[in-house]
């Protein structure tokens, strides 16, 4: 792990870190599962976190042994329908949907002269940031269309560092999912895991929730 003094930038995930859109994703996927007749469970819901749209759909279809019942075009239609449902929910978001302590932490990072980028697999990330009124904090956003591999592959976090012209070892990545932490570690960045320590045991730094994230608390765990 790097020393805190080596750190020059932060690469953020969006869902579950800056805001909790996962509840909207779950609602929208649940609607699709009901439509195709796939069983919905807490296990399935958790398994979809941080996974791309088409991979998520495959998991839902597999849960009902329905993967061979739909053509590729029909699958695209189902995924598009999910996104439309999701965007209706996102449209109602306000800055009140920012997770506890995150706005203060972003201000602290900015005032400290650190660089920021966003590494979200979501194509809707710019829309979400706009609703939360956080667009100006993230001038650099990884475009998921430019990626060939999803998390846990390091590609998205390597791009996040590249966008702010930093080496991976100068960056801290912030995640709430095990696949995301794996992605940060594989990229050679320092990982912060937010959530259950037993699930995010591979993170270099752990916080139970977003409100605990401050530069002082991170420094304490790193050094």
From TrEMBL:
GO terms for biological process: carbohydrate metabolic process. Its cofactor is Mg(2+). It holds the Pfam family Hydrolase. It comes from the Bacteria. Substrate binds at residues 13-15, 29, 48-53, 56, 82, 120-124, 151. Keywords: Magnesium, Metal-binding. Mg(2+) binds at residues 13, 15, 175-176. Belongs to the HAD-like hydrolase superfamily. CbbY/CbbZ/Gph/YieH family. This is Beta-phosphoglucomutase. It comes from Lentilactobacillus rapi.
